[in-house]
Specification:
heterodimer, A: mainly alpha, two-stranded antiparallel ribbon, 2 strands, B: mainly alpha
Chain lengths: ~350, ~350
């Protein structure tokens, strides 16, 4: 009896065995292959190089968001403010950049700052939203779901106030559109995609190789144990929420630059998509488990499913039901697979 | 000497605890009164306090109460669910779906009673699904109901034919004009059936919470689920039942909304979950469950509606989101300061 228990305890420590996280990532990779095969079989023109490339490049914004959301989710918290944060940062970057006193129209007047300064300030504001989240969650210990839903409303609301409920897109310097439009010619790869790939690689190394990241897992697995073993949980949560805010800010600036406009309704529902891809990639709802690579696989699965639905000429109204069903099946499938493995 | 000291210290502590509990008991009423006062004196230069166009004019009050119908109908049941330590983020979508189904049935020639009953049964079904996901499949409530939020919303959008934004009368079919009798025709004191049904619902749920085991069990499960289960409460069944009740009242709220607007808008319930959460938190229900009061949620709901309607008269619509976000954060902080502390102590 006791020997069995000890053996059971030792199991995860055994060398050379796949960790549960890699297992789930591989499992979801398998599912991705199946979904992709089915989609290729039934949707015309799905199995082409251009389409496969698009599956990755068209989703750069959700994937960038997903990195922050994944880490926050691993600690057992939510960040629902990212969508609002994107809208706010985009609008702010436009507002800071617009020429001062150039027109009668209030929506055409901004602060007239140089582009780089504008971007820097907008990113600071994005991190500020993250810091506000962190203050309520880490210091006041209010449930994260409710706080981040509140800051989502505040951020989107602020974007609506600045744009008076519409958008700002006039009197912008030429430099504003460069970041979003520059890329490798004749492909769908733009700077934003390269940023996404870089961030994924950095996040992967960060997750596997740094003490900081491993402690995040400990916090998610058992917050009390983490605290008792000398980890300053509040500091870690603060850092992660600010990181998530920063990533949302980067996304917001790139999107604003791509469209050369700050739109207050931009990124509606992205917080849900980011959560969905993290869950699809095997991040545990209760914390302490998950990986950035898994999230990436999850993003591609969602992208295959939604673009297959579009390819089959289903109405856009299908996307909500479709996303819900896919997430639901994924949660159950992962739990089933993990239970089988442990048994 | 020391005993005297500790004695006086304890008395001081008791007194501060007393003050705190009194504040906790009554602050929400003060907040409501302050908000109403603020909005009613805001445009005084344009007329007397009860004149037409003012916040406290009879027309305005009736309008306010009519707009409050969905949240009043819904938030009582939502309180019970939150007392049990669970949450349902899908109520807004459930409302929209019910509104769409009700409008569709009315448009296609069903009479009031079948449409009414089918919509309510549908609501119970939606709650049943949520309850199943949370209690049987043990998916965290936030995630489970976020997923169903998306699913219900998707269904509502799918029922509405392509090219239309809502279920409404068109060239081919005319929406029967009796659809808005339920939420618009005055039956008593200038208020429609829907409002009096909401009042009845609140009274019923207050009694349910205070006088029946449903309320006691919900609090027990929210306070300490394990202890509740060990003392023989079937938590799975209780929570499931609460989700069904919430679904039922979400459908009733959606029906009132559809009747009020005379159409089935698949987005009409969007954001309702936030309003409900704000109302419940303002009402002093602990977010982690264990304690709370249906009656006080009603005051919270009235605050939400007063702020929404009152702000519309003084500032542009695009301030609405910021205002609501601020109210939510304030509610969270107040709730935290006044409720959570007591639990920790």
């Amino acid at each position: 009896m006791q020997a069995k228990e000890i053996k059971h305890l030792r199991k995860p420590l055994m060398v050379g065995k796949l960790s549960d996280e890699s297992f789930i990532t591989l499992f979801m990779l398998g599912i991705l292959a199946i979904v992709f095969a089915i989609a290729s079989a039934i949707v015309p023109n799905f199995y082409t190089v251009q389409n496969m490339l698009n599956l990755v490049t068209n989703n750069w914004f959700v994937i960038i968001l997903g990195i922050g959301v994944t880490f926050v989710l691993i600690t057992g918290n939510y960040d629902m403010s990212v969508g609002g944060n994107i809208a706010l940062t985009g609008v702010l970057s436009v507002y800071f950049c617009q020429g001062a006193n150039v027109s009668q129209n209030t929506l055409a007047n901004g602060l007239g700052l140089p582009y780089l300064v504008a971007v820097g300030l907008a990113l600071l504001c994005a991190m500020g939203v993250g810091a506000v989240n962190a203050f309520f969650i880490a210091k006041l210990k209010v449930p994260s779901i409710i706080v981040t839903l509140g800051t989502m409303m505040l951020a989107r609301g602020a974007a609506q106030v600045i744009t008076q409920g519409a958008q700002r897109n006039t009197s912008l310097p030429d430099a504003f559109g460069v970041l979003g439009s520059l890329g490798i010619p004749d492909t769908s790869i733009r700077i934003s995609v390269l940023v996404m790939i870089t961030l994924i690689i950095v996040a992967y190394i960060f997750e596997k190789k740094t003490v900081f990241a491993r402690r995040i897992y400990l916090i998610g697995a058992n917050r009390e144990a983490a605290r008792l073993s000398g980890i300053n949980v509040g500091k870690y949560l603060t850092a992660l929420y600010i990181l998530s805010g920063l990533l949302a800010g980067i996304t917001g600036i790139l999107l604003a630059s791509e469209f050369k406009a700050g739109v207050s309704s931009r990124a509606m529902g992205y917080e849900f998509d980011a959560l969905v891809i993290a869950l699809l990639g095997g991040v545990s709802i209760t914390g302490g488990f998950g990986s950035v690579l898994g999230m990436f696989v999850g993003a591609i699965i969602l992208s295959v499913v939604t673009s297959a639905a579009t390819g089959m000429l289903l109405s856009p109204d299908w996307q909500f039901t479709l996303k819900a069903s896919v997430t639901f099946i994924a949660i159950l499938a992962q739990r089933f697979a993990l239970d089988k493995r442990k048994a | 000497m020391t005993t005297v000291k500790t004695e006086s210290l304890r008395m001081q502590l008791d007194r501060s605890a007393n003050v705190r509990s009194i504040i906790k008991q009554f602050y929400i009423f003060v907040v409501l009164v302050l908000i109403v006062l603020t909005f009613s004196v805001m445009k005084l230069d344009q007329g007397g306090i009860f004149d037409r166009g003012q916040f406290l004019s009879p027309d305005s009050i009736i309008n306010l109460l009519r707009s409050a119908v969905p949240i009043l109908t819904l938030s009582g049941a939502f309180t019970l669910l939150m007392i049990s330590g669970h949450i349902d983020l899908s109520v807004g979508s459930a409302m929209s779906l019910s509104a769409v189904v009700y409008a569709w049935m009315v448009l296609n020639g069903y009479s009031f009673l079948p449409a009414f009953v089918v919509t309510l049964i549908l609501g119970c079904g939606l709650g049943f699904i949520n309850g199943y996901l949370v209690t049987k499949l043990r998916i965290t409530p936030v995630i489970a109901t976020l997923v169903t939020l998306s699913a219900f919303k998707g269904l509502a959008l799918l029922i509405v034919p392509d090219g239309l934004s809502a279920i409404k009368g068109s060239a081919g079919i005319v929406m029967p004009d009796w659809i808005n009798f339920y939420a618009r025709r005055e039956v008593f004191l200038g208020l429609p059936w829907a409002f009096w049904v909401a009042v009845f619902v609140i009274i019923l749920l207050t009694i349910l919470q205070r006088r029946t085991i449903l309320g006691k069990y919900a609090a027990a499960i929210g306070g300490n689920r394990l202890a509740a289960e060990l003392s023989g409460i079937n938590a799975v069944k209780m929570v499931w039942l609460l989700y069904i009740i919430v679904g039922f009242f979400a459908a009733l709220a959606g029906l009132a909304r559809a009747s009020y607007m005379s159409l089935g808008d698949p987005l009409s319930g969007d954001g309702m979950e936030m309003d409900a959460i704000i109302a419940v938190l303002l009402g002093g229900t602990a977010f982690s469950g264990g304690e709370g009061s249906v009656a006080k949620t009603v005051v919270g709901a009235l605050i939400v509606i007063c702020v929404t309607i009152g702000l519309m008269t003084v500032i542009p619509a695009y301030w609405q989101t910021v205002a609501k976000g601020t109210v939510l954060i304030t509610a969270v902080v107040l709730n935290h300061l006044l409720v959570q502390d007591k639990i920790n102590a």
